[in-house]
Amino acid sequence: MNDSIPSHSLRMCPMSDATQRGTLEKALSYMDLRPGESLLGHKVDVVFVGSCTNSRIGDLREAARLIRGRKVADSVRMMVVPGSQQVKRQAEAEGLDVVFKEAGAEWREAGCSMCIAMNGDQLAPGQYAVSTSNRNFEGRQGKGGRTFLASPLTAAATAITGVITDPRVLVEAREMA
């Protein structure tokens, strides 16, 4: 399992450079976040497991393993977009597409999709997303949209709960059952 998890809280490091501090403050303002605010538990509207960097077959297997037998939260739209046609074919041969669809996720064609707000796959102004894309900047996934970057496991856990979730919580819950 990937050990990457969201930051438990936002911390402002002392910065002597006014430009760096201004940039950080602008980013927090855009995301409507405050220093010290926990990211865990933050509500999201969309979860995107995709991009050529974080929807390899291993990524999809991990996310499917966590989601199997569970449902995507009613308040969340989850899109799963394989990183290539080869990955899509392999995932479908393994039945991963069925796992995602049974959970309530959209199984999509391989491609850029929401990674760069293509083909109508984009956030509305003010919506929050957890995305497995490899980079983020203002408006990348839709004008006024706000994106948190995360691992495929964190994205899957968040889709299930509807809030940013450390995937270890769901892994441990399943192991205890």
How does this structure look, described?
With 177 residues, the chain is an alpha/beta fold. The protein has one domain: 2-Layer Sandwich (Aconitase, domain 3), CATH 3.30.499.10. Helices cover 35% and strands 10% of the residues. The chain contains 6 helices and 5 strands. The protein has helices spanning 18-31, 57-67, 85-93, 96-103, 152-161, 167-176; strands spanning 46-49, 77-80, 106-107, 128-131, 146-149. It has a 5-stranded parallel β-sheet, covered by helices on one side. α2 (57-67) links the parallel β1 (46-49) and β2 (77-80). α2 (57-67) packs across α4 (96-103) and α2 runs parallel beside α5. The model is unreliable at 1-6 (pLDDT under 50).
